[in-house]
Amino acid sequence: MSRSAPVGAFEDSTELIRRAFVVALHEGLTTVAPPWATREGGSAGPRPAPPEPHVALLGAHREVILADLAGELPHALAATGHPDADRARRTLLDWARTLFPTTQSAPPHRGRPSGPAVPASRMRLTVATLLLECAARRLPDVPARALALQALGRAARGAGPAGR
Predict the structure, then answer these.
(1) CA 23 to CA 57: how far, in whole Å?
(2) Is this prediction's pTM over 0.85?
(3) Can you tell me the distance from the alpha carbon of 87 to that of 37, in angstroms, rounded to the nearest whole number?
(4) For residue 27, is pLDDT > 80?
(5) Are 127 and 92 in contact (CB under 8 A)?
């Protein structure tokens, strides 16, 4: 008499394997250059080191996390009774965007949105909490996930972008 596993267990395993494969494939493809590729300026040379897995994971999911955050912010701003919720939402999204690491070797603040440097501490706490919640919802369950969430938390506390 043999026991068979429930169908749901197979589906869960398949989804876990699929997510791990997607992240591994992405990491592999970002580290490989075709033989004809050259660096800027036309000279062939060593490639810059690939980003750490958690940085690549955050970079790959940044826009979907920020879109999720954009959907949650109006509810949070309405709960606080903010007078100009649309403007505050844009400012807070710009600040949240600065928490993600850059995958290029640009200086830390180059190419980042300008505007108020840092929102009020109460709003930073609200946005940081929502951002971590959105990231936890959107990041796949892969080994780099925990490091990615920790890096976002450190960045929200003021330690700089999540890649550090």
Answers:
(1) 7
(2) no
(3) 43
(4) no
(5) yes
**Which residues, including other chains, have CB under 8 Å from residue 12's CB and lie 6 or more apart?**
none
**How far from 135 is each of 36, 43, 64, 70, 105, CA to CA, in Å?**
37, 39, 9, 12, 24
Judged against a pLDDT cut of 50, whether residue 109 lies above it is answered with no
64: tokens are 């979907």
Please write down the HEC assignment for all residues of 53-99: HHHHHHHHHHHHHHHHHHHHHHHHHHHHCCCCHHHHHHHHHHHHHHC
pLDDT at position 161 over 90: no
Q: Give the chain's radius of gyration (CA, Å).
A: 19
Q: What is the distance between the alpha carbons of residues 37 and 101, in angstroms, rounded to a whole number? A: 25
pLDDT at 72: 93
Which residues contact residue 14 at a Cβ distance below 8 angstroms, ignoring those fewer than 6 apart? none
User: How high is the pLDDT of residue 15?
Assistant: 81
Structure confidence at residue 133 (pLDDT): 95
C-alpha 126/C-alpha 102 separation (Å) is 23
What is residue 101's predicted lDDT score, i.e. its pLDDT?
A: 84
Torsion angles phi and psi, residue 112, rounded to 5: -90, 155
Torsion sign over Cα 155, 70, 23, 143: positive
